[in-house]
Design a protein that fits this description.
mainly alpha; single chain; 109 residues; 3 helices
């Protein structure tokens, strides 16, 4: 940015290429941890009288899912998207307040 690049340009051309390996590694670790947690829950709930919702959805997807399972999966998906969207909106709002109103409006001499 000292050489005249805009903040978005500096982020896209400098920061993201340097962070890309760490981002991919974290995605792989989170995916492996999530699959591990699901497998553990599935095996530990095998003899239980009740089933967690994730195991019920997985079991129903292999057979014919009922409308109740479809509705529960839809509610989970929509609520996840709403939480992600709310987090993104709050992040954008608070990052604008901290950066000031005239970011990117500079006078060249």
């Amino acid at each position: 940015m000292d050489l005249g690049a805009a903040p978005n340009q500096a982020l896209r051309r400098v920061l993201l290429p340097l962070l890309w390996p760490a981002i991919l590694a974290s995605v792989a670790l989170v995916f492996a941890d999530t699959v591990d947690d699901f497998v553990i829950v599935r095996y530990l709930s095998g003899q239980a009288p009740t089933e967690p919702l994730s195991v019920k959805i997985y079991s129903a997807a292999r057979a014919s899912p009922t409308p109740a399972v479809n509705a529960a999966a839809t509610v989970m998906l929509v609520s996840t998207f709403l939480v992600i969207t709310l987090g993104w909106v709050l992040y954008r709002r608070f990052s604008r307040e901290e950066s000031g109103a005239d970011v990117g409006n500079f006078v060249q001499l």
